């Protein structure tokens, strides 16, 4: 059974804007899935609904078999979300904010895991720095570390490489491949076809709130 299952999902914002129209999407465990579409297509809306940040309009979403409405905590526990914005606790130290993120899920402290995550993201040497002292790229790394602190089964990356330098982009791709080896499912949004091509196993093309195509990457690249 799919690790993420989205059925008949629609969303109309209070403004009257139809952000999503009858989205149906199943994502298999261990898959790297790219949601590809132009700005305003509904990518963030979709991710934010699955992660419980935006309320769904109608439809059903299950993560690891847990309904996100009736069983939110269990569903959310399985999810790591790397948002686009850099806003993160300016005065906190890197170590503390990442460790705290794990604690939010009621998990026991696990310094060895936090250390591994920080090392994977080249953040370990900065563990005692305050977030405000870090560059934009480093803040971005902190957001990823926070999302991985509770060992999620599904990682969502919203426009992960938008405005990111080459080194971080390459580190991100390496990280995604390593996560896949560990059986973690990765779902990312992008408006770059090259990024979908480089990173994903399967690509869903979204336009004006509708998924217009879902293809294995190889098939998609043959068509384009
Ligand atoms: P994408 O991530 O693909 O750029 P979004 O999901 O951010 O697309 O936006 C989809 C559409 O919904 C856009 O037209 C956007 O302006 C609109 N939208 C996003 N958030 C809101 C909101 N809170 N209220 C009203 N409209 C919104
Ligand atoms: P929290 O109270 O946020 O859960 P911890 O108990 O994990 O924090 O750690 C408290 C402090 O101990 C941190 O500020 C950090 O400086 C330090 N610390 C703990 N474990 C490690 C580690 N493996 N490497 C470096 N510093 C650590």
Automatic annotation (TrEMBL):
Domain of life, source organism: Bacteria
User: Entire protein: which part is shown?
Assistant: 2 to 225 of 308
Q: Which UniProt keywords apply?
A: ATP-binding, Nucleotide-binding, Transport
* The species this protein was found in: Methylorubrum aminovorans
Protein name according to UniProt: ABC transporter ATP-binding protein YadG
Report the residue ranges that make up the ABC transporter domain in this protein: 4-224
Q: Which family does it belong to?
A: Belongs to the ABC transporter superfamily.
- Output the Gene Ontology terms for molecular function: ATP binding
């Amino acid at each position: 059974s799919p690790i993420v299952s989205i059925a008949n999902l629609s969303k109309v914002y209070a403004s009257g804007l139809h952000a999503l129209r009858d989205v149906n999407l199943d994502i298999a465990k261990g898959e790297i899935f790219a949601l590809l579409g132009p700005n305003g297509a509904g990518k963030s809306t979709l991710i934010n609904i699955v992660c419980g940040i935006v309320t769904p309009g109608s439809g059903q979403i299950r993560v690891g078999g847990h309904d996100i409405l009736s069983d939110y905590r269990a569903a959310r526990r399985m999810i790591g979300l790397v948002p686009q914005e850099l806003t993160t606790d300016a005065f906190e130290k890197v170590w503390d904010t990442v460790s705290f993120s794990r604690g939010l899920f009621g998990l026991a402290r696990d310094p060895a895991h936090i250390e591994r995550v920080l090392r994977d993201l080249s953040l370990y040497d900065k563990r005692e720095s305050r977030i405000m002292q870090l560059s934009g790229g480093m803040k971005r790394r902190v957001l990823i570390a926070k999302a991985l602190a509770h060992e999620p089964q599904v990682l969502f990356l919203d426009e992960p490489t938008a405005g990111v330098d080459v080194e971080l982009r390459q580190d991100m791709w390496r990280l995604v491949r390593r996560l896949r080896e560990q059986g973690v499912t990765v779902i990312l949004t992008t408006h770059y076809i090259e990024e979908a091509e480089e990173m994903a196993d399967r690509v869903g093309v979204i336009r004006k709130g509708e998924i217009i195509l879902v293809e294995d990457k190889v098939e998609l690249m043959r068509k384009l």
